[in-house]
Design brief:
- The structure holds 2 protein chains of 2 kinds.
- By secondary structure, chain A is an alpha/beta fold.
- Chain A contains 18 helices and 23 strands.
- The longest helix of chain B has 19 residues.
- Classes of the chains: A alpha/beta, B alpha+beta.
- Chains A and B meet through helix 3, helix 11, helix 13, strand 9 and strand 10 of A and strand 11, strand 12, helix 6, strand 14 and helix 7 of B.
- Strand 9 of chain A pairs parallel with strand 16 of chain B.
């Protein structure tokens, strides 16, 4: 996020697109709802009229996968009616002419037709956003989990720059991260192209720095493989050993049949986890890790805040902190790593090697965490980025983008769109929530379908149905839900039974390799 | 600015109330309906004080400070008035502390202790039990409710779920869920904000029932293991067991609020299903192994593959649930030891 959660409550305008905040980030939604109570304008754009829409000033029920067309439509109105921030665009941004030419290519009627959001609504949203600046753009996986995910993200950024909303308090582009430490795992270099602190591996000076810091030579210079490519590499034998740490890939990745075929083809799989899962079935070695609360460390939240995680119990049996396991493996290759605790790893290694975290030390985050960039120990941390429109890269770069449809769209055989996500009472594959009493709140998964589709298929609320895609099928209980538009089916990946990923499409954004969990084609059949 | 409380000069800031300044300076005033997060209600009347130049007793929660203001919180008149309020509250409910989950953390009990109330002076017939145990995680005992309204304001103004409200009139006034539905069948999503707001034992965590007295637990501040908001939690621990989880009231970003997963989803660490020893698959079956055996096997296999096919024949995915220090160590293993950049995690999904 360029900005911070606390700003939601003080914002003038919140533009929430592809975020089911009340379920996936409930505490963030409290702030958004508080802002509405204080008079803020809340614009919700989503294929489902989910709970946050109940608090919205404007709700636009967009068609799945039409975001770029919709956002280009808004920008067309802003440019045609000269409602955009001309001074900001001229002084702080570049490539405006290309953006302008691109958004003017498509008539508003066409944007309305693609997105399902009418011309008048497009105009109303654009005018409202122009009249209430700065506004915060907030999104989650509804924007990213598409084959055009990267373009969706850049379109949101285009819109916010056009409005002069980036680099301002209560503005910005704010993707909320799904898991507690996705931000952190990126921050500390669990990515194939960068060292900790987003320092590219391809830059010789960076490799030299880390070779010196780690006391090694010959760090690899070629960016590595992204996860979907590794999975495919298992089947092609390009990848012979696969080390899976705390991921239940057999349930979380799109097209489970394909995923399990890949995992079964692997020569050697190591799983490091706190439980046996559907994925550990494929493991040759399983290593027991300490869980949350059994070791000290830090998490980095979506707002770039590095906060302490403390220990309050000992791990069971022989389970050990994960850093200890990696350190022990390194020892077997002749490397003696110096750090022996979370504090030593962070204070003496991460924050020394990554300039953005240089000022974050354990003794400074005993209370509230600090938000990076925080380059030195006097630095108070950074609540919002690109202050006064002074972008990290210099000028904000507009991208001229075309809308592309999802990889698989409905047809005569599979006439419905399946979109997936998370529900309030569970987390991912329930390894944690399923063992914490939350099954009481949601004991089984269901598929949300519209009253119109239910009627057409003769399906009653609560009836078991078969949901089929080109990749698989599940038997699942139907929930007739008036918040779902005709033509859409919505479900989650929390339960093995009825898991949406038996159906989802393993098609990916070509650059980010993010899978299109939000759109594939399905059909409904009655049981028996 | 300064105000004088019980003859002592106390530093105060513009916009603060007398109660806030008193609390900041360790001066106890019984106050039940005020909470920093949901603000002034002026309902309970327990926080009465004398303010020089103002007629009658004042509710300290609602009077803004002025420079030089002189306040007295312990005069016989003040104490008598406070005592009457607390005495009436104790008389009209079933405030038996012996097995109450709130014992030791109850604000009504603290007020009674401060005022030296041994037992209520008015004896009313015992109330019929009024327990609502229908929800998954919250126990509701309306006989302990003092109608301070903190839960209602928390539900309406803080988490803005608008489930809780006051219902009925006069002496029958009480908290209700939706249109007076049982909590378990209401639209409540069990975020537990009301429990954290409740000053007495009317709303308590079911999971904590009978697990520990307040003074037996230590509080460990940490960061929630669920979504990417990064809420700060206080884990109340007895020995090695979590008794309850509350939101860290002055912590960023959540200021004490949590969701159902963060507040109640903490049992998984104690599950019988935990992996407790390394396992090696032999002839299709998993068997227990020592750390040395398992790690030696992994290292040997990796060395063989690297020798035969190069380091890029190994791939790894790190865990977005684990700490920065763990993910850092894993990427270091891949880059500095195995010499491949084939390290990723689920950021793209």
């Amino acid at each position: 996020m360029t900005n911070s959660f606390g700003e939601y409550a003080r914002a003038k305008l919140l533009f929430c697109i592809g975020t089911n905040m009340t379920e996936a980030h409930p505490v963030a939604s409290y702030y958004a709802k508080q802002a509405v109570k204080k008079g803020a304008t809340l614009i919700v754009v989503d294929p489902r009229r989910h709970a946050l829409a109940d608090y919205a000033t404007i709700f636009a029920q967009i068609k799945v996968g039409s975001d770029v067309a919709f956002l280009n439509g808004l920008m067309r109105v802003l440019i045609e009616e000269e409602l955009y921030d001309k001074k900001y665009v001229a002084e702080c941004c570049e490539n405006f002419d290309a953006l302008k030419a691109k958004v003017l290519e498509t008539p508003l009627e066409k944007a309305a037709q693609i997105s399902g959001v009418g011309v008048e609504m497009l105009e109303r949203i654009a005018r409202t956003m122009a009249a209430n600046r700065p506004g915060m753009a907030i999104y989650t996986l509804g924007i990213t989990e598409h084959t055009c995910g990267k373009n969706n993200v850049m379109s949101v950024a285009n819109l916010q720059m056009l409005l002069g909303n980036v680099g301002k308090e209560c503005g910005g582009v704010n993707p909320m991260r799904g898991q507690n430490n996705v931000q952190g795992a990126c921050d500390v270099g669990a990515l194939p192209n960068v060292f900790p602190g987003y320092q590219p591996v391809a830059v010789p000076a960076n490799r030299e720095k880390f070779e010196k810091g780690w006391g090694v030579t010959g760090l690899p210079d070629k960016p590595g493989m992204m996860m979907p490519d590794m999975m495919d590499g298992l089947a092609s034998k390009k990848i012979r050993a696969f080390y899976i740490y705390g991921e239940n890939l057999a349930n979380t990745e799109p097209n489970i049949t394909h995923v399990e075929k890949s995992l079964a083809a692997a020569e050697f799989i190591v799983c490091q986890d706190i439980f046996q899962t559907e994925t550990t079935k494929f493991a040759h070695v399983i290593l027991p890790a300490a869980a949350w609360g059994e070791d000290e460390g830090t998490f980095s939240s979506s707002e770039r805040r590095v906060s302490l995680v403390r220990k309050f119990k000992t791990p069971p049996g022989e389970a050990r902190p994960s850093w200890w396991i990696f350190k022990e493996l390194a020892k077997r290759f002749g490397q003696e790593w110096p750090s022996c605790s979370g504090k030593e790893l962070w204070d003496n290694e991460v924050s020394v090697l990554a300039p953005a975290f240089g000022g974050i030390k354990y003794d400074r985050i005993q209370g509230d965490g600090l938000q990076w960039p925080c380059p030195n120990v006097e630095h108070p941390g950074t609540g919002f980025l690109h202050r006064d429109g002074k972008f990290t890269r210099g000028k904000g770069l507009f991208a001229a983008l075309d809308w592309t449809p999802p990889a698989e769209v409905p047809d005569a055989e599979y006439p419905l769109v399946l979109s997936t996500g998370r529900r309030l009472y569970h987390y991912h594959t329930r390894t944690q929530t399923g063992r914490s009493g939350l099954n009481q709140m949601l004991p089984e998964e269901f598929a949300d379908i519209s009253p119109a589709d239910a009627k057409e298929h003769g399906i009653a609320d609560g009836e078991m149905i078969i949901l089929k895609s080109r990749r698989g099928q599940v038997k699942i209980r139907a929930k007739v839900n008036e918040r779902i538009p005709r033509g859409l089916v919505w479900t989650s990946f929390h339960f093995r039974e009825g898991n949406a990923n038996w159906l989802t499409n393993n098609a990916f954004d070509p650059e980010t390799k993010t899978a299109e969990y939000k759109a594939c084609a399905v059909k409904i059949e009655k049981v028996g | 600015m300064n105000i004088i409380v019980n003859g002592e000069d106390l530093e105060a800031r513009e916009g603060q109330t007398i109660l806030q300044v008193a609390r900041e300076n360790g001066v106890f005033i019984p106050a039940l309906c005020f909470h920093e997060k949901v603000g002034v209600a002026g309902r309970c009347r327990a926080c009465l004080v004398e303010v020089e130049g103002m007629k009658g007793l004042q509710t300290s929660c609602s009077v803004p400070v002025k420079n030089g203001m002189t306040v007295r919180t312990r005069t016989p008149v003040v104490l008598e008035a406070q005592k009457l309020v607390i005495d009436l509250l104790l008389s009209t409910g079933t405030h038996d502390c012996l097995s109450c989950e709130k014992n030791g953390g109850c604000e009504l009990q603290n007020a009674a202790y401060y005022l030296g109330i041994e037992r209520p002076s008015i004896s009313l017939p015992a109330l019929a039990p009024s327990l609502d145990g229908t929800s998954a995680f919250v126990s509701v005992d309306r006989n302990k409710c003092i109608q301070c309204g903190r839960c209602v304001r928390g539900c309406q103004n803080s988490v803005v779920n608008n489930v809780l409200d006051f219902g009925y009139r006069g002496q029958h006034t009480g908290i209700i869920f939706d249109d007076d539905a049982p909590m378990g069948t209401s639209t409540c999503v069990q975020c537990g904000e009301c429990v954290q707001m409740c000053p007495v034992g009317a709303l308590t965590e079911k999971k904590a029932l009978g697990k520990a007295r307040r003074w037996e637990t230590r509080v460990v501040r940490t960061t929630c293991p669920y979504c990417g908001v990064g809420c700060q939690l206080d884990v109340h621990v007895k020995g090695e067991d979590v008794v309850r989880v509350t939101g860290t009231e002055d912590g960023s970003p959540n200021r004490g609020s949590l969701c159902v997963k963060g507040r109640f989803g903490y049992d998984f660490m104690y599950s019988e299903d935990r992996l407790t020893t390394p396992l090696i698959r032999e002839n299709g079956e998993l068997r227990k192994a020592s750390w040395d055996e398992a790690l030696d096997l992994v290292a040997a296999k990796f060395k063989k593959i690297i020798a035969e096919s190069g380091p890029d024949a190994i791939g790894g995915v790190s865990c977005a649930r684990s700490t920065n220090e763990d993910s850092y160590s894993m990427q270091k293993l891949f880059r500095a030891v195995l010499k491949t950049n084939n390290i990723d995690h689920c950021a793209r999904t």
